[in-house]
Model the fold of this input.
Amino acid sequence: MADLAHRKASKKIQFIGKDGKPLSNQNIQVELKKHDFLFGCGAFDFVAAVSIPDEEKKAHFIDRTEKWAKLFNYGTLPFYWGGFEKEEGKPNTENLKKAALLLKDFNATVKGHPLCWHTGCAEWLLKYDNKTILEKQLARIYRDVGEFKGLIDMWDVINEVVIMPIYDKYDNAITRLCKEHGRIGLCKKVFDAAKDCNPDGTFLINDFNLSTSYEILIDGLLQSGVPINTIGLQSHQHHGVWGIEKLEETLTRFEHFGLPIHFTENTIVAGPNVDPKIIDLQDAHYDDDAATPELEQMQAEELSKMYKNLFEKHPLVTAITNWDFADGAWLNAPSGLIRKDNSLKPSYNALYDLIHKEWHTSLALKTDENGFANVEGFKGIYSATCDGSALADFELK
Done:
């Protein structure tokens, strides 16, 4: 049995009745309500659930959100500039707010992704010179971080910076900026803007390039005072499952910074590996019948191994986001935890058993004469009841 002391806490709690008096010598039932650890998933379906006018299609996506919420406590919403603000000055703020509020109704933490990225950038920026592009990029950060403050306080501030200044598939406004200001120069400007707008926010740098180049970049950013407070590691495993050895090697290189680590975009596919000749995964595509029962079972087993390793052995890892909730999202890949028809896959059930059974705390306690009882369990928010009556929630941390 793994030593999970780094995921648990103990605290002496005084339980108070509705009359304001201590519940002396009473039986109390305590239940973990929300893990401190962020078990997450892409929450793009929430946008569809609040915005699609067709009632039958809406019901399909609402069903997805309910299944999502039974498993996860942390969702990533899409703020790709080109899709979020297709026409300058007309951002899709209303629908993203509705989606974030729906996630909050399910007691989930919400992250926005991303504020600055060369891919999926707004095409209308290209008509401006670099000075104006930078002004509009920073104004976008102030607008969106400010508009969503209190609703979304966690952001992937800048995405895939390692490749940003040398990206040559097509011209885009952000690569232009990165060429002019350099990786560190651009990062400092966008992180400073986000921090200025929401001083208590959680701001990530995020990348798929986990080579030494990313380590050197992070080191340079921290030396330059860039307010990164969490490191994002993408783990799209379309070319093959990493396995524990690669996972450990990767973590060894990024844990030395001493910052929280989020696995921001994790993918294990219930389908064939992508041809290694395809370097840019944006060029990959899966057939509709790529999944098989055997591959779905493999996906469940490999996800379980990865989650157990990260949760049980690496205290600095504080979040894991499975990128696709349903099959057929990115690249038409069978990478979700449910199928296109919303039926549950083995991977959904495997993660449910880990998160809500193996890593769950449920206690029957007896208070002393002053209403105190020792509570020990996984860090997080707890509910409590006495004789069927709900008491105030409390946090164990």
Q: What stands out?
A: The mean pLDDT is 97. The chain is about 35% helix and 20% strand. Residues 20 and 62 are 40 Å apart (CA to CA).
